UniProtKB/TrEMBL annotation:
The keyword Transport does not apply. It comes from the Bacteria. This is Amidinotransferase. InterPro entries: DDAH-like (IPR033199). The lineage of its organism: Bacteria, Bacillati, Actinomycetota, Actinomycetes, Kitasatosporales. Belongs to the DDAH family. Keywords: Hydrolase.
Length: 276
């Protein structure tokens, strides 16, 4: 029998996909002139946020901006740990104006926002788990930003080299199952081939009991999942991973975000956690 898993209530920041679109191509999932079914996107997103609330989580939202079609991907806006907000500096000029929109939301919500000097895309590449921050680099977030994150939070940053352009953000290749917050064993799930050999060895060393996903799971955005320690909101297309989660005592909660896959995003990309 798998051990029973305990959920912990979370605080999430999201951005309604009122103006979601694929207007430019800044990752291999995107192509210009892609048709987006906005009604479908809105209903998928509403299911996601309704699901969070039904599970007892707090969901807050930032006002979307008509000129910012990727603003729905709230996870790129910051890393928030112990009430400290490390803001973002986007790689693509198209997304730069989002920095100000999100910083303004955090300020109104009562947080000071650290504005970084180097390119860094929030929880897209910065994943806190087990007393570390796992930090992706290779496509977006820079190693210089990793140093800045470590200085800012005083938490050890573990750099991980991403090597496959389809998995351009760390949160497309890895997610946290259990963050280890209250002394429980931290654990993750990941797709090995997204990482350089050395980075993969680091993951194996730190998380010997991790769930290892297939390329099919990863291409279905299965690693772009959100766990509260028990319930795992996961793409239903990631069949093998959904099964593995159940075998390990987690509660898979399928949420289909297929319309957002056209922009290279899924469940986690739409979800910024506020750890206050
Ligand atoms: N189109 C967006 C980009 O390329 C998608 C961002 C997905 N977000 C994430 N956390 N992986 O920047």
């Amino acid at each position: 029998m798998p051990p029973s898993r305990m959920p912990r209530p979370r605080r999430y920041l999201v951005c309604e996909p009122r103006y979601f679109d694929v207007k430019y191509a800044i990752n291999p999932w995107m192509s210009e002139n892609t048709e987006v079914d906005l009604d479908l996107a809105r209903s998928q997103w509403t299911t996601l946020t309704d699901t969070y609330r039904a599970l007892g989580h707090t969901v807050e939202s930032v006002e979307p901006h008509a000129e910012l079609p990727d603003m729905v991907f709230a996870a790129n806006s910051a890393l928030v740990l112990d009430g400290l907000v490390f803001g973002s500096r986007f790689h693509a000029p198209e997304r730069r104006p989002e920095e100000e929109e999100y910083a303004a939301w955090f300020k109104v919500a009562g947080f000071d926002v650290h504005r970084p000097g180097a390119v860094v895309e929030g929880e897209g590449d910065l994943v806190p788990v087990g007393g570390y921050v796992l930090a992706g680099t290779g496509f977006r977030t820079t190693v210089e930003a990793h140093r800045e994150v470590q200085e800012f939070f005083g938490v050890p940053v573990i750099g991980l080299q991403l090597v496959d352009p389809y998995f351009y953000h760390l949160d497309t290749a890895l997610f946290v199952l259990e963050d280890g917050h209250d002394g429980r064993a931290a654990n993750i799930a990941y797709y090995p081939e997204a990482f350089s050999p050395g980075s993969l060895a680091v993951l194996r060393r730190l998380f010997p009991d991790a769930l290892v996903a297939t390329r099919e799971d990863a291409m279905a955005f299965g690693l772009n999942s959100v766990s509260d320690g028990r319930n795992v909101l996961v793409a239903p297309q990631a069949h093998a991973l959904v099964e593995q989660l159940a075998e390990h005592g987690y509660e898979p909660v399928p949420v289909d975000m297929s319309e957002f896959h056209k922009a290279g995003g899924g469940i986690k990309c739409c979800t910024q956690e506020i750890r206050a």
